[in-house]
Amino acid sequence: MIRLVRPEEPEIYGARKKRARSPAMTDIHRRFRLHFWRAQHGKCAYCECSLIGQPGDVDHYAPRNAVTHLLVVRRSDPGHPQTPASASPGVPAWSEPIGGYLWLALEWTNWILACEICNRAWKGALFPISAPGGTAIHVSGVVGVPHPGPPSGETYERRLLLNPFDTDRSPENHLYFDDQGIVQPRAKSECGLATIQTCGLDRTPLVDARRITGSGVRYALSRYAKELEDCNFLSAYDQLRLACWAASPTQPHAAVARSVIQDLLEVEWEEALYLLWLLRALTWHDQAEHQRNERSAEWALGLAQRVRRLEGLSPIWHGYAGVVWAAWRAHWE
């Protein structure tokens, strides 16, 4: 799961929403699914699997009809869909359903495009929440409805399920992926753990798919370091480009690629792109010099200098840029 930018609500959507007789009797999801497909780059918002070959479900982030919660720890087998382990026979795995967030059913900000496995086999009506103080809210009917209904809009719950469109919480701060595809809560994040358990992000097919991506990125970065050490700047650029491409939002399982980049280079994926631009400018300069094109060489060198002096980047990035620049200068001279 990576942070995404929510698509803008079309003007025509407001008119169609008013004409909808009820959330259960409208095809409004089907008509506006494409907006979320584009914003999510054709991937499931939760597991980042490609939706090519399946229509995808318009999931209600806050369930509209009913809400349930896991009452016990989920079964240890991560590949088995939605099978929490009860402590003893007869102990329920889920809470009794209560009324959902029906008033949010047609709200544009409550929609997410998800694959059928994440939405139907795993998340379903699950929606983990806690009180502002961090105490879990139990929905046994004694405490009462754990979410406010309209029209007051008063909020006294904390939603634990991560939303990739959320501008206040980035999934990268709550989920950690290693190069073997294993996902864990970052820094014991309560939101990260709830999201893994709710959407089944640790199921075996996902781990296997992420392992391929993570291993490929780690290999590319190891080659990048070797080529840079040997002053093969064009080859180093190619290897870093492969790693950054795997971490781009258009690629499946970009989150694991970004985690590997952060682990090995100690910079964010966005900063790695600037390092890529620095290498590209230096290789442009070298190619122009070999072609005796002084004007292009001067332009490329100026671009490299501007990238190297960019402000707002981390000290670690500037350290990397300094090493690359010094190695290039020594090799050229």
SSE arrangement:
Blueprint: H1 11-19, H2 28-39, E1 57-60, E2 66-67, E3 98-99, E4 111-114, H3 116-123, E5 129-130, E6 158-159, E7 175-177, E8 183-185, H4 190-199, H5 204-229, H6 233-246, H7 254-265, H8 269-290, H9 294-308, H10 315-332
Antiparallel strand pairs: 1-4, 2-3, 5-6, 7-8
Q: What does it look like?
A:
The structure is a single chain. This protein is mostly helical and 333 residues long. It folds into two domains: 11-205, no CATH class; 209-332, no CATH class. Helices cover 44% and strands 7% of the residues. The chain has helices at residues 11-19, 28-39, 116-123, 190-199, 204-229, 233-246, 254-265, 269-290, 294-308, 315-332, and strands at residues 57-60, 66-67, 98-99, 111-114, 129-130, 158-159, 175-177, 183-185. A two-stranded antiparallel ribbon has the order 1-4. Strands 2-3 form a two-stranded antiparallel ribbon. Strands 5-6 form a two-stranded antiparallel sheet. A hairpin with a 5-residue loop joins β7 and β8. α5 (204-229) packs antiparallel against α6, α5 (204-229) packs parallel to α7 and α6 packs antiparallel against α8. 33% of the residues are buried. The model is unreliable at 72-92 and 134-145 (pLDDT under 50).
List descriptors.
two-stranded antiparallel ribbon, 10 helices, mainly alpha, 44% helix, 333 residues, elongated
